[in-house]
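Tokens in:
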């Protein structure tokens, strides 16, 4: 019995400190934030063991369900995976550039303008359209001489005057709506209507 212990070296202080360092290595390998999260999770798991068991069983059930769906309906599983990839890509674009990336470039100035500028632009646009409509109603409802009619027409914007007096009403519709109403020859029909349109100018 004495001979069996003779060949073994007694534990030194260096080996003891090495063992203690190896025991503490896993906790030191984690970043400080992850250590705090791990400590909170451990405390929560200790306080709520039934919720931990429920979460584990639910996760196992979801994994089994996904495996079963992938075996029985692989196309459905691939479709869901593709939708998930699209959603992740959309979330990444929104996180990097925001939803403004999907808006027309002509609306980007709204993000940089002040509320006063935006309200001023809206009021100005409404006032201009209101003035044009008022002049148009005066031409329709009032008895005016040629000079007065010419003055009203002169103060109208050229585009508004062109759209009201020299274009058919179908030209005011979007191109897609015109195509649905009149088919692939909608542009020809509109061109013919423009050539035949009589000027309603007083």
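Residues out:
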């Amino acid at each position: 019995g004495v001979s069996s212990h003779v060949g073994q070296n007694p534990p030194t202080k260096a080996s003891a400190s090495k063992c203690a360092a190896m025991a503490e290595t896993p906790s030191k390998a984690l970043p400080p934030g992850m250590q705090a999260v791990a400590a909170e999770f451990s405390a929560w798991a200790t306080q709520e063991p039934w919720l931990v068991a429920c979460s584990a069983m639910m996760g196992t059930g979801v994994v089994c369900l996904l495996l079963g769906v992938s075996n029985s309906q692989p196309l459905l599983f691939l479709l869901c995976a593709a939708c998930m990839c699209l959603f992740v890509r959309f979330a990444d674009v929104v996180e990097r550039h925001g939803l403004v990336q999907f808006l027309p470039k002509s609306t980007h100035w709204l993000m940089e303008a002040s509320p006063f500028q935006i309200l001023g632009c809206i009021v100005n646009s409404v006032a201009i359209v209101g003035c044009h409509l008022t002049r148009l109603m005066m031409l329709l409802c009032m008895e005016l001489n040629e000079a007065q009619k010419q003055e009203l027409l002169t103060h109208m914007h050229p585009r508004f005057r062109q759209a009201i007096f020299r274009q058919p009403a179908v030209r005011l519709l979007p191109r897609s709506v015109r195509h649905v109403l009149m088919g692939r020859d909608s542009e020809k029909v509109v061109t013919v209507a423009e050539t035949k349109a009589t000027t309603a100018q007083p």
